[in-house]
Amino acid sequence: MNWIYLFIPDTLNLLWLALSLFIAGVIEACLWKTSPFQALNIPIQTNWFGANKKWRGLISLPIAMVASVYLLNLLEILIPALYRQEISFSNLNLIEFGLLVGFIFNLAELPNSFIKRRLDIPPGDENNQLFYFIDHMDSTYGVLILWYFYFHFPLHFIVTGLIVTPLLFMGATELRKKLGLK
To answer: Mean of the pLDDT values across residues 93-102?
Structure first.
């Protein structure tokens, strides 16, 4: 029963950290409409990853993440109750964290895209429930690996993340669709 005492605070902490990715996704959608990112709207490698994996994503999400974590760090400063999280933005190098999380989030999608192209599964196909779930865990699991091995987040936090983050990401994807951002 001790795990429940970690699961709930870890889940709340994950929600806080995941909020940075959601905000970055909104910022990223705005960046894509600018001319520098329109110029980067070219596939990384169509034969390997399909036409939807583009250079602009690998570059725009890290930049958007930096802006997002700075914004949330400011909220932590303005609302001291947010400091009570075990892992807060105030304890991180925001540029390093934002750039790495944004880059790894998108980079971790590429192996899944490569496999799906080999299996002739079209990009964005949500008919196959297994690949729908994998589409929502590849990026988040990539970030969890980064958090554990590079940022040394606690193992109990990562284990909670293995369960919670795909669900959060699926919810965020649905919300972005409803808001017309995806």
So the answer is: 98
